[in-house]
User: Which sequence fits this backbone?
């Protein structure tokens, strides 16, 4: 078996994006275009992955992590053939190179494996093509009239009127044994409309040298759609999201509207999960059996255990939610939060870096930060843990069976001992004794004869 090398071409300026960000760093499904391509390449376990960069190269290197990547600089963007030539010295002499494009992000491992199977002998080349309704802008696959064998790839701008009618297009993805690259790349000339060194010219060279060029047609067109402008980026995003939604539906997840969901990472669902419209899932999100997510929720790196309900407009990040909890509507749960089973976090409640015990509730307008709350605790409306003294953060401990009256401030560090009751409107700065009522409030007074100020006439 030949050693597999992957070269990802990503040096182009991406002028049509009208952006200072290099094209391959624009995101699709929450990840840079280039990251999608690299992740897919890694799945093939190649001997080497080279990424050809040029325009915005430094920014790309900073943004994309990977010790396994070999960065190759293409100083001037003189065409795809010139780009691959820059990587030539890095490739294994006895290798086979798979060319991928940084702006064709969604090619799947399965399609690439198909292509690899075709050229295992290392004596032929392979090109991934597809038939499209509107081939405008793509290189056309030109075939022999009689044998139907591929004879050349002709770019849009160089195609004759007759060739422009061809609907089979070059996806850009090809596999070529490195011995042939050494032979053909130096022969590419830039005598074409764009004065570029086209990689696609090597196909005609292969045919001339009697080397067999196999073609494989990709099933899903969106897998090979290129991103050249923001319109195509948005279009591809929707196509991909629809694909993700379809996969979820096939696996038994209920989506109220599969056209209104965004998955920017990995969403793993157990059975009977129901997701309402306009939810966004980022990073890794796991939803257990019978979990329901209401409309307009954002979940990022979250685990929600069986039977929990997330009501609409809630935002949850970096949290672990146990079984049968009720969250929201309008709840905000921030990183470091762990909710035990049957916890209720209601509207306009923010929880950060806190643990909350079984069956405890904070149902209205509260902030719970850097806290450890026991079980069966009731946190009244408007309760605030004052965790920050302007310089440092401090911890609040609320033990089991505590009842905290509304509009209370717990000034950390502070401990509310087991079974305490805190009177509404208190500011608690010291540890409270167990099972007693503690309150800090000035006495209520009434001033007789007091009158409201009269309105002054102008
Ligand atoms: C290319 C193909 C075309 C194919 C289409 C599929 C050639 C000549 N044409 O056209 O047949 O149908 O892709 O999407 O190959 N790049 C460099 N250095 C350069 C030029 C480009 O690294 O000097 C990179 C770009 O960053 C990009 C990729 O190569 O990731 C493709 O370049 P682009 O200019 O977008 O080629 P297309 O015109 O789309
Ligand atoms: Ca392109």
Assistant:
């Amino acid at each position: 078996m030949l050693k597999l090398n992957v070269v990802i071409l990503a040096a182009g300026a991406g002028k049509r994006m009208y952006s200072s960000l290099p094209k391959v760093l624009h995101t699709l499904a929450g990840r840079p275009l280039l990251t999608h391509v690299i992740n897919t390449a890694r799945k093939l376990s190649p001997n080497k992955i080279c990424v050809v960069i040029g325009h915005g190269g430094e920014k790309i290197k900073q943004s994309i992590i990977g010790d396994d990547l070999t960065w190759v600089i293409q100083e001037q963007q003189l065409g795809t053939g010139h780009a691959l030539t820059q990587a030539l010295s890095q490739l294994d002499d006895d290798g086979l190179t798979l060319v991928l494009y940084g702006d064709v992000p969604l090619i799947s491992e399965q399609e690439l494996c198909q292509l690899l199977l075709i050229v295992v002998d290392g004596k032929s080349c392979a090109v991934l093509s597809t038939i499209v309704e509107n081939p405008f802008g793509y290189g056309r696959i030109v075939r022999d009239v009689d044998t139907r064998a591929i004879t050349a790839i002709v770019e849009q701008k160089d195609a004759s009127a007759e060739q422009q009618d061809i609907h089979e297009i070059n996806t850009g993805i090809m596999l070529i044994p490195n011995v042939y690259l050494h032979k053909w790349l130096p022969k590419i000339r830039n005598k074409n409309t764009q004065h570029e060194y086209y990689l696609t010219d090597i196909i005609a060279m292969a045919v001339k040298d009697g080397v067999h060029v196999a073609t494989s047609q990709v099933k899903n067109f969106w897998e090979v759609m290129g991103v050249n402008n923001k319109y195509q980026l948005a279009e591809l995003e929707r196509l991909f999201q629809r694909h993700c939604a379809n996969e979820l539906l096939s696996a038994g997840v209920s989506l109220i509207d599969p056209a209104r969901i965004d998955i920017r990472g990995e969403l793993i669902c157990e059975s009977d999960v129901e997701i309402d419209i306009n939810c966004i899932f980022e990073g890794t999100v796991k939803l257990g059996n019978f979990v329901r997510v209401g409309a307009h929720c954002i979940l990022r790196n979250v685990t929600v255990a069986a039977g929990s309900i997330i009501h609409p407009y809630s935002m949850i990040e970096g949290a672990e939610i146990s079984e049968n909890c009720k969250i929201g509507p309008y709840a905000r749960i921030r990183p470091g939060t762990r909710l035990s089973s049957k916890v209720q976090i209601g509207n306009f409640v923010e929880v950060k870096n806190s643990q909350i015990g079984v069956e405890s509730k904070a149902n209205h307008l509260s902030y719970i930060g850097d806290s450890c709350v026991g079980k069966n605790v009731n946190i009244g409306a408007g309760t605030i843990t004052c965790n920050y003294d302007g310089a440092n953060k401090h911890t609040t401990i609320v033990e089991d069976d505590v009842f905290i009256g509304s509009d209370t401030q717990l000034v950390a560090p502070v401990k509310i001992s087991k079974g305490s009751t805190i009177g509404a409107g208190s500011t608690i700065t010291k540890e409270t004794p167990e099972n007693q009522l503690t309150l800090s409030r000035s006495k209520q007074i009434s001033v007789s004869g007091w009158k409201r100020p009269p309105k002054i006439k102008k």
